Amino acid sequence: MTGGDSCLACLPLSHIFERMVDYYFFHVGVTITYAQSIDTLSQDLREVRPSVLVAVPRIYEKVYGRVLEAALTGSALKRKIFLWAKRVGEQWSTHRLSGIAVPPGLAMRHAIADRLVFSKLRARTGGRIKLFVSGGAPLAAEIGRFFYSAGLVTVEGYGLTETSPVLTINPFDHPKFGTVGKPIPGVQVKIAPDGEILAKGPNIMRGYYNLPDATREAIDPEGWFHTGDIGEFDAEGYLKITDRKKDLIKTAGGKYVAPQPIENTVKLNKFVANAVVLGDQRKFPIILVAPNFDTLEPWAKERNLVYASRAELLLLPDVQAKMEREVVGGLRDLAKFEMPKKVVLIERDFTIESGELTPTLKVKRRAVEKNYKQLIERVYAEADPTAAVIER
């Protein structure tokens, strides 16, 4: 980045990720423009025409979702061209990311795909993007690869407020999507026996202010900071985040389920706006799904389904069957104990105002469980009436 670059920022200024980026850009002279809101991001991108966008995965998920929706709800020809371009992009990306020379025929097909599809996507981001920067939560590998094939390189890193914040980052010239890269110079990262990511280095905090017990719990006697995240290194030394340790679901049968990978897969579906997997200390997990009504309602209209409200729409058997197919269809690779046994539809997406999302759009599971407690209890009671009677 140089003084000729510009950044569109859309995270809270109090967030450590945004602060670090801002301080760095102040240092090198990058112009920073702050988005009006998440809802106006598309408009702001076209108006500002930045060379770098800094955001959390949920923003990139929304951009990806809108691209898919626009392509798949268009004419049959438009849909066919888009799906062809997407396949070509995946093949091209596989070669480039593996360091294998791209065959001339594939290079030509990618150039055509770029002209027909990918160039239009870049134009929608202002046409000057050099780099997408993602942090705050894991980004789905499919999204990273798609943007890469469209000439929009996404660099993903990992860290916490307590680590100032960066611990690892993907190299720009050799990103590995689905991972958060390698440890930065001067930082040590290792995996504890229980899978927790531990870190040590000059960027680790000294402790929590006036909270000695919390500090001792976070930093062990050897100086390793316990991040609370579960992860693993691959053969090339790239770190992959699995989930938050406190978010792991332990079923009544003693099996551990990592909810984030399941949720991230489900949220890639165009019929889904948001999703949360629940089921701690239960016989099986369930998944709460907020439908994407911009996609679901046109689908219902095409089938002449009659309803007076969204609540009525979600009660229609055809809609429930459709949403279950869409959700479960993408989860075929899960182990039996990981598979949500019930798809529970809710009328609205989670929001910051309701207390269900953080300012960086991460779901607050405990708040969701509290707000939907009666619904959750009813779902489990209907699935296992005997257990419900015993619990009462």
Please provide a written account of the structure.
The chain is of the alpha/beta class. The chain folds into three domains: about 5-150, Rossmann fold, CATH 3.40.50; about 180-245, Roll (Luciferase, domain 3), CATH 2.30.38; about 250-385, ANL, C-terminal domain (GMP Synthetase, Chain A, domain 3, 2-Layer Sandwich). It contains 14 helices and 16 strands. The strands form four sheets. The protein has a seven-stranded mixed beta sheet with strand order 2-1-3-4-5-6-7, sandwiched between helices. It has a four-stranded antiparallel beta sheet with strand order 8-9-10-11. A hairpin with a 5-residue loop joins strand 10 (about 225-235) and strand 11. Helix 4 (about 75-100) crosses helix 5, helix 4 (about 75-100) packs across helix 6 (about 140-150) and helix 13 (about 375-385) crosses helix 14 (about 385-390). The protein is globular. The model is unreliable at about 385-390 (pLDDT under 50).
User: How many strand elements?
Assistant: 16
Question: What level of helicity do the residues show?
Answer: 40-55%
Taking pLDDT < 50 over at least 5 consecutive residues as the criterion, the unreliable ranges are 386-392
Proper CATH architecture of the largest domain: 3-Layer(aba) Sandwich
Q: Which descriptor suits the 3D outline?
A: globular
Biggest pleated-sheet summary = 7 strands, mixed
Helix/strand class: alpha/beta
Oligomer: single chain
The total of helices stands at 14
CATH class of the largest domain: Alpha Beta
Q: Quote the beta fraction.
A: 15-25%
Order of helices and strands: EHEHEHHHEHEEEEEHEEEEHEEHHHEHHH
